[in-house]
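Exercise 7b. Backbone tokens:
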């Protein structure tokens, strides 16, 4: 009698499904609490003041960098309260979990939708800003392509 792998394969598939659902649970919770700290001080008044100003600036420009510096301690509070920002970690992106990185990429896309511009170009500016090396950046770009956020290169 030959071996029938159907049961073993189905058990494996069910384990993988359970693990993916665990990952989805993590992402769902992140979606619920994303940037919630912006609703409270010291961040609320900062974002009330600066969001209209940031809309007028080009992401990555010297003016944009200057604005971030002027946002000061309240912006630092935001970074420390939200692990999807590379600034949350002493070693930046390398300190992040895969879930932090997924949320970061989703955040980048949302900001791009809000402020406009080419998302791939914005991603490349973020790679420079956060010291993201080319091979890891390529993974982020492939993810954005798979999600339909940018055209296939």
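Sequence design result:
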């Amino acid at each position: 009698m030959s071996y029938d792998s159907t049961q073993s394969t189905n058990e494996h598939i069910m384990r993988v499904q359970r693990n993916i659902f665990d990952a989805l649970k993590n992402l769902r919770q992140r979606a619920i609490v994303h940037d919630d700290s912006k609703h409270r001080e010291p961040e609320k008044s900062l974002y009330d003041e600066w969001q209209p100003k940031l809309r007028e600036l080009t992401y990555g420009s010297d003016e944009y960098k200057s604005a971030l510096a002027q946002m000061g301690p309240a912006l630092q509070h935001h970074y420390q309260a939200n692990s999807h920002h590379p600034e949350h970690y002493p070693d930046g992106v390398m300190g992040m979990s895969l879930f932090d990185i997924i949320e970061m990429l989703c955040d980048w896309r949302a900001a791009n939708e809000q402020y406009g511009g080419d998302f791939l170009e914005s991603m490349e500016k973020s790679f420079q800003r956060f010291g993201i090396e080319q091979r890891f950046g390529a993974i982020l770009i492939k993810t954005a392509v798979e999600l339909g956020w940018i055209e296939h290169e």
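Instructor comment: The first helix runs from residue 6 to 33. The helical segments are 6-33, 43-55, 62-81, 98-115, 119-130, 134-146.
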